[in-house]
Amino acid sequence: MSEAAGDQAAHRDPFVLVHGASHGGWCWVRVARLLRAAGHEVFTPTLTGLGERAHLLTEDVGPATMVQDIVAVLENEELRDVVLVGHSFGALVALGVADRVPHRLRRIVLLDGLVVEPGASGFDGVPAEVIEERVASAKASPSGLAFGPAPATVFGLSDPDDLAWVDRRLTPHPLRSYTESFGLRDPLGNGVPVTYICCTDPPYLALRSGHEIVRRAGWEWRELATGHDAMITAPEATAAELLR
């Protein structure tokens, strides 16, 4: 390897991949493998109260907790020039991280992400019937703190093995992270370049209201012909988009 090639390999941007509602860091395993094969450091943290950290759910877990989860990774791993990827609900977390530590980020990629106006809550970006269903689910739960996960079919999955894998890994999602504002600043992204990747086949209609915000912000817009859980249904195409 030449000295120039060695320097390039040594300075490849690290990726931090943030999962969506009811998911965990586990959902990125296929994409993370491809990014690492391309020579990147990859981190797939699980947000507090979800996945293998579901046992940590308390009434205090909300947007601030989840933003701190990711900020702590960036700070403790001493990461710079990060490509921060937020999938679905994780887009709000990624934008919140940009408000806290923009100097650690090179760019943000929102993969079929939930986007709301500055100061709005997650529930401000989804249809009324989704809100009603999730609030009712949380009220019916033993703790009242989290709503139950949707079936994996909702996320555009069809392969029987993928459906079984995702259904058994999904966990209830903290309600407070949708009812409480992330307090996002204006402009969204806090000056960090943002790319939005819209999954189109099938489209996840619950996120449609945020698309106008994305276009108004002037962010780069791309489309990926796969379902909402693109990291599972199309890992190669997803990794290729992230590496562009």
UniProtKB/TrEMBL annotation:
Coiled-coil parts of chain: none
Keyword Hydrolase: yes
Domain AB hydrolase-1, residue spans: 15-240
Pfam families: Abhydrolase_6
Keyword Membrane tagged: no
GO molecular function term, any single one: hydrolase activity
Gene3D superfamilies reported for this sequence: alpha/beta hydrolase
Protein keywords: Hydrolase
PANTHER family xref list: AB HYDROLASE-1 DOMAIN-CONTAINING PROTEIN (PTHR10992:SF1086), METHYLESTERASE FAMILY MEMBER (PTHR10992)
Record's protein name: Alpha/beta hydrolase family protein
The organism of origin for this protein: Pseudonocardia yunnanensis
